[in-house]
Here is the input.
Amino acid sequence: MNIFAKKYHPRDAIPSAEKSQSPLKKPRTKPKNSAQNLAQTPTVLGGTIDTPNLTHRVLSKMAFGPSRADINHIESLPGNTETDRILAYIDEQLDPQNISDTTTDNMLMQGFETLNKTQQQFFQEHVHLPNGAEIPWDVHIRPGRETSYAAFIRAINSNRQLFETMTDFWHNHFNVYLEGDNIQPMFVHYDRDVIRPEALGNFRNMMYQVTRSNCMLSYLGNGVNEQSAPNENFARELLELHTIGAKNYYGHLPWQDVPTDNQGRRVGYVEEDVVELARALTGWSFSGASWQDYQYLYPAPGDPVDLSQAPTGTFLFRPDWHDQGVKRVMGTDFLYDSNDPEKDVNDILDMLAEHPATAQFLAYKLCRRFIADEPPQSIVDQVANTLQQNWQASDQIKQAMEVLLKSTEFLNTWGEKIKRPFEKTIAAMRQIEYSFAFNPNEEYSSWHYWGFRNSGQPPFGWTSPNGYPDTKSHWLGASSNMSTWKFIQWICRFRDGNNNDASFNNILAITAEGIPAEADRTANNLVNFWYERACGHPPDVNTQDKLAKFMSYMDVAPDVPIPTDRDTAIDIFHNDWPSYNSERLVSVVSTLFLTAEFSYR
Here is the structure.
């Protein structure tokens, strides 16, 4: 049972798009790529990087890396060519509500206690008990911790890989630091009710929910934004990081001097617009944001405490905090309506969502995420045009992603991105079919949580509102790479001490299935099989030589290993002296995940 499908992905809420055919068979009214184009040699950084096949490239960029199940599924799809099958896979992924995800759903029922609570329950059970009693720390942070574990489960196991990568993208776009004050107790709500419902839906709807979410209201201080002292934090980020973009900031220029486009819209914003937007956002708060919300605990002498007056954590418009004057934002006046007190902000959100600068900013970030650090302007323009022209459509983001994912720029580019720590780790886990359940009640889960933090990219762990960086240069540092590699080495060897030291990886079974004849399981073949599986192409001569040499070692004396014939069959299930074959194979596989080739996207 999909515990989120009915609530967050109703079939009638997301219209189904026309299924794609090979572009050679059907004329297009907007730029599309032919099957011939899709078969081009991919563009690579410097022109010297070996490139994997199309399936490996697509799963490395629109998913969290290839898995045996996904590769087999793509091969089973209808189509005469790999290109046709990839187009069919993209169509499937663009409709996640139609994809069964039973394994993931079942895992999210093992020890998870908060994923289905209401927003009020989160607040009254994890932030503030109505009777004012103290909340134990582990109870306080439980929803945030469960959201982190769920992120691992979904990224590793979900059949809805595009949906999960898009959820990750929007979490970074509307970044909220998980460990901010009173955010962990509410974070399931932010992930479940704010980000995930519109990950392939409508940007305007998501932005509205972000603006009302007590996680964002707490994180950037808008929950206590009063007309007597407007708080500019959220207003500034709404313009700079969420919509118009910093490149369109004109500083302290008078608003009248900001250029206009051919529709009369101001092409950017100025400091005065930040101040005016902050005025508009006054009074947008939540129940529990003000010290006044807790005065029910101190009734008049002799009167009982009325627990029904306890704050709920839900959105609360506070009219006495709201500035009811006219706000001029980007050259347009927005009026307060007492009959519709949210109208001024909603009208501003409409303006921002419809603005071409917002579409360009979002398109650039999407193309940067899925194509290259500096994506070609041509595809950015195509994606931006789709976003802007369909800004009110319920499947706006889906339409834009279809343009992006079926573009030559996406399908024929390789090596322009590298995997960040979370993506690299999940890709390794998917390769070895990591079976750890991330049950929040098991101690091993906290081992993973704390062990991964040093990588530099724990889920929802970026402290500032701009989200995790998405360029290669940021992630080339030694500290982050060494910590990530150390964690990957650990998971490849980690065993279940509560279950006869059973392995959480499936390396031996995958190898046996991939090389079914025992006589073919030689050092050379084992290295070639796993390297091509992990990196999408055969190893270079130097890498193959070193790994195969290591795979062929035998200990002729204690701690004195020597290489043997690399074309002699190896019993991969034998793990005693003098060869320790099973452990040696695990070491080879985990070492592959340290190569530069595995890091490419």
